């Protein structure tokens, strides 16, 4: 089908394009505005040498595990992601089971550094901030008994998030409009094709 004929078909079936667009965009609108806002708060810590490096034995021990610092830092990240820490924090904040389930903890190392990033996602701005800071405190205390030559030190506390990280309503609505338009154009072309195929003059004898 040539471009001119295709455009003529679409314009001739404008009502079909409009219906598909309205239905798709309406469904996207309902879905988008029924999704709750999700906020994220992030606390950062640094994995640093302890005072034991000052002693000869501590220094020797530190050199022995210096090559494992990424592994050690990763261990701290795994501790922060553990259910044990999350349960301890949830208990201290007196959260219900539903509130705890709605919180997502994601701890990771910044690439090329020994900086541990503890990010908490949830629907309540104050809660994600408090939870992130308390997770860091619990991991800091737990980490004291893991290694003699490294410790976890606070770098930046989590701040109250101002803007949600999702859903991106503008993006969702734009995608819904594009999808609805594409669906409508496709349906118009399909209907035109079926109509042309059903005409007696176009059938083979």
Please give a structural write-up:
With 205 residues, this protein is an alpha+beta fold. It folds into 2 domains: 3-35 and 168-199, no CATH class; 39-156, EIF_2_alpha (Alpha-Beta Plaits). The chain is built from 8 helices and 4 strands; from the N terminus they run ααβααααββαβα. The radius of gyration is 29 Å and the shape is elongated. It starts with a helix and ends in a 7-residue tail after the last helix. The model has no long low-confidence stretch (mean pLDDT 82).
Overall structural class, as computed from helix and strand content, comes to alpha+beta
| Rg computed from alpha carbons, rounded to a whole number of angstroms | 29 Å
CATH names the topology of the largest domain as Alpha-Beta Plaits
Oligomer: single chain
Q: How far apart, in Å, are the first and last alpha carbons?
A: 23 Å
> Total domains, how many?
2
CATH class (first level) name of the largest domain: Alpha Beta
- Determine the strand fraction and express it as a percent band: 15-25%
For the largest sheet, list the strands in their spatial order: 2-3-1-4
Shape descriptor reads elongated
Contiguous runs where pLDDT drops below 50 for at least 5 residues? none
Summarize the helix and strand pattern as letters: HHEHHHHEEHEH
Number of separate helices: 8
Average pLDDT value? 82
Helix content: 55-70%
Tell me the major beta sheet.
Answer: 4 strands, antiparallel
